[in-house]
């Protein structure tokens, strides 16, 4: 399958790198472009067989599936201009959560789908969130699912849980990264441990935790129970966390959903024109 990418920013580049590294695609089957063409050319320097197109139209004509990796409010004007180029047997794929597949289907005659990736896909892990439009054939669904399964666990979701699913899968690494940095900084400020050692210990703890969960030996509650000996030090630490963590995460989800509703409203206004 020939794959196209319109937009080679952070996430577009991550997807391209992951697909090549996982051997889901060969570089010569990729055609890419970007508004600032140098970004696409920089990718070609690492993967010389990739085709770089000067115009998005060229990407479409060379591809079976085209990933649109641009900002949410840039999608409507871009696809409105490019819609005559698509053919019915092609698939257009957005990677942004505020744009619904039903909206894509109002302006393009081809099949439409959404794949919300995660930075964890760069390590060929994590989950990718899939939503298919009514226009998608069983064959198109199967091919797209097989493609992303090479770099992640594909999970098909309903539109109603798009935001919370994205918070966990796509935004989650940033949220956890922030918390881990605060964890390290507090250790350095409250004790005599060096920042270098705190970073090393925390990183290896997280890697080990991930591997332990991957084995399926413990669920998260079971793991906590194993470490948290009654009356011990871990329990005292958890008491401190219990005083604020629940409200913190609830507020986090409220904030992301409020912003999501704002973005949806702006996108909807475009598609209603």
Write up this protein.
The protein has two domains: 3-157, NAD(P)-binding Rossmann-like Domain (Rossmann fold); 178-261, Orthogonal Bundle (ProC C-terminal domain-like fold). 55% of the residues lie in helices and 12% in strands. The mean pLDDT is 95. Strands 3-2-1-4-5-6-7-8 form an eight-stranded mixed sheet, sandwiched between helices. Helix 1 links the parallel strand 1 and strand 2. The protein is an alpha/beta fold. The longest helix is centred in the middle third of the chain and has 29 residues, at 162-190. It has helices at residues 10-21, 37-46, 56-61, 72-82, 101-104, 138-149, 162-190, 195-215, 220-227, 233-242, 245-271; strands spanning 3-6, 30-33, 51-52, 65-68, 91-94, 111-116, 127-132, 153-156.
Strand content is: 5-15%
Global shape: elongated
Give the C-alpha Rg. 21 Å
**Annotated CATH topology of the largest domain:** Rossmann fold
Question: Going across the major beta sheet, what is the strand order?
Answer: 3-2-1-4-5-6-7-8
Labels describing this entry:
273 residues, ProC C-terminal domain-like fold, 8-stranded mixed sheet, alpha/beta, Rossmann fold, 2 domains
List the helices and strands and how they pair.
Elements: E1 3-6, H1 10-21, E2 30-33, H2 37-46, E3 51-52, H3 56-61, E4 65-68, H4 72-82, E5 91-94, H5 101-104, E6 111-116, E7 127-132, H6 138-149, E8 153-156, H7 162-190, H8 195-215, H9 220-227, H10 233-242, H11 245-271
Parallel strand pairs: 1-2, 1-4, 2-3, 4-5, 5-6, 7-8
Antiparallel strand pairs: 6-7
